[in-house]
Amino acid sequence: MSVTTLDASRLAMHAKRKRVNAVALTLSLVAMAFGLFWLAWILFETIRLGIGGLAISVFTEMTPPPNATTGGLANAIVGSGVMVFLATAIGTPIGVLAGVYLAEYGQRTWLGRVTQFINDILLSAPSIVIGLFIYAVVVARFRSFSAFAGVLALSLIVIPVVVRTTENMLVLIPNALREAAYALGTPKWKVIMSVTLKAARAGVITGVLLALARIAGETAPLLFTALSNQFFSLNLGEPMANLPVTIFKFAMSPYENWRELAWAGVFIITLGVLALNILARVFLRNKH
Amino acid sequence: VAATLPVTPYDATQPMQSTAQVAQHSEPPPRQRRVPWADAAFAIAAHGAAWITLLLLAGIIASLVVGAWPAIREYGLSFLWRSEWDPVNDQYGGLVMIYGTLATSFIALVIAVPVSFGIAVFLTELSPNWLRRPLGVAVELLAAVPSIVYGMWGLMVFGPILATYVQQPAQALFANVPVLSGLVSGAPVGIGILSAGIILAIMVIPFIASVMRDVFEVTPPMLKESAYGLGATTWEVVSRVVLPYTKTGVVGGIMLGLGRALGETMAVTFVIGNFNQLDNLSLFAAANSITSVIANEFAEATPGLHQASLMYLGLVLFFITFVVLAFSKLLLSRLKRGEGART
User: Fold this and answer.
1) Which of A267, B91, B120, B340 yields a CA-CA distance of 20 to 30 A from A86?
2) Residue B321: pLDDT above 90?
């Protein structure tokens, strides 16, 4: 009698545990589907609405006035390209050097530890605060919005990303490689430049690509640094058109032609950013 | 041993003598000491780059404090609980925006934490091996989509759907319920705190999920296998072995997500409605967050108290995110150290 009740309670317990397990795992599956669902939906809408606005004129004509029948994003695309390129060119050397410092010089020093900590915080710090900083330091000083200020703001976002990946990749390089180079009498800077950095090249390039992807869509730090420009300009001393701010302005407007162009711009940015991300991953995997 | 000792120096000196002789006759090896300063210069450059990162932080804090100084002097800490924001009469207080930032981030976490946990469990325990990588990449791509895309999508696609299929039915359902009807009141256009919170949730899910996945993978396989060997179900292994082992890391991941949500600008600016008053607590009422008010007003703000107040808000935001992110980093590094001690 007692044995059968014991058995029964055991069976019930077992069944309950299995049930709980099934429910939990189903929920986990649902969560995964939930996450993918948004990605799919956002991509789908971006493609559907973006392709509708896409035409050759988007790449050849300047941003139009409201309710015009023609017009494109040429000045914004060029402006974004220029600023992203310059920001990467400024941010990458500083980021790589700081990453080298963290991995090769500062492993156990207070400066290394503090820098690493601060860098990780800057990596996730609100980008709009970077914009405020550059506004206070550059724009307020020179009394004008300028593409140069935008470039600086973006380069400050590049630095932490590049520092992080560079350090991570350099730490992975086996010490035996360094020791072998030192044993041949190689000076430290040469060991770093032609042995460790060279071995970690794929990782460093991945970091730069990720940083590019990150700043290509950054809007907040440009709102009050580079501002925007209705016309084509390559002058770094004055406001320059750029895709993200133009999209923001156009999307928030009530004009149909502006909204359509905003979708086209969103499509271009999404495509570019996702392509950069996938490229970075492929690059890293092929080298490892 | 004694017999080999004299041999070693003899053997070692032999080639040295010969190189010395060769060196006398031919050119000395040219590449060795040509740039004696290069080592020092490189070290200085690397140190300098590290210092730039530190100075950047100091510069951000200093410039925000200086920029915000007129507002700090005028209001002091009472700025944080003053709710007026009236550029016309030059009266400013941050309560509405601080509330908006905290409320949207809270909604985001309520949605994002369980979902991220589920995703991390799926990726570490359930997923077949061949699916793990593509799914992980898909989640990371979700993190890479620029926030302006989320904002645009939220404003034009998601907002209207939320209004039609959630807000209007909820308004009909709660029409006579005292508290709930207030919570869902407002024009059915799909902007406000709730849509901003949901979009923030979608944005931070990938961050939290990938940190959780990474820390779950830190759990020693031996522990998990022992639990499985005792007959534990997958869920029991996750909840009683993996989760206790990695809880600091999990909290760190959540804090990271919170830091992201607090500082997110564009996605919120698009959908929150940009309204500077707090006259009801409806989830669908237009509101404002710290980031969205800065994004909207800063470029046009007159230098003076208005600009200083916006800077003050930026300082508050930076302070909150700094504390949250520092906490997150501390927790995550503690997990890493613990792992080192155990293995």
Assistant:
1) A267
2) yes
Return the SS3 of B30. Answer: coil
Cα distance between residue B51 and residue B58, in whole Å: 10
List, in order, residues 6 or more apart from B216 with CB less than 8 Å away: B120, B121, B124, B125, B242, B246
Q: What is the DSSP letter of A65?
A: P
CA A192, CA B204: separation in Å to the nearest integer?
36
CA distance B85 to B301: 13
Q: Provide, as residue numbers in chain B, all residues whose Cβ is less than 8 Å from the Cβ of A247.
A: 148, 152
Q: How confident is the model at residue A2 (pLDDT cuts 50, 70, 90)?
A: low
Per the CB < 8 Å rule, is B46 touching A127?
A: no
Give the A:B interface size as CB pairs under 8 Å. 270
Q: What span, in angstroms and rounded, lies between the C-alpha atoms of B216 and B218? A: 5
Query: Which of B65, B141, B153 is best to mutate for the A interface (most A CBs within 10 A)?
Result: B153
The answer to whether residues A252 and A86 touch, using CB atoms and an 8 Å cutoff, is no
- SS3 call for A107: coil
What would the mean pLDDT of B202-215 be, rounded to a whole number?
A: 92
Phi-psi region of A109 (alpha: psi -120 to 50; beta: other; left: phi over 0): beta
C-alpha span between A130 and B64 (Å, rounded): 10
Distance of CA B82 to the CA centre of its chain: 28
| Tens digits of residue pLDDT in B147-172 | 999 999 999 899 889 888 888 888 88
% helix, strand, coil for chain A, step of 5: 80, 0, 20
pLDDT tens-digit map of A212-249: 999 998 999 999 888 888 888 888 888 899 999 999 99
What is the pLDDT at residue B35? Answer: 67
B120: helix, strand or coil = helix
Q: Which helix (H) or strand (E) holds A103?
A: none
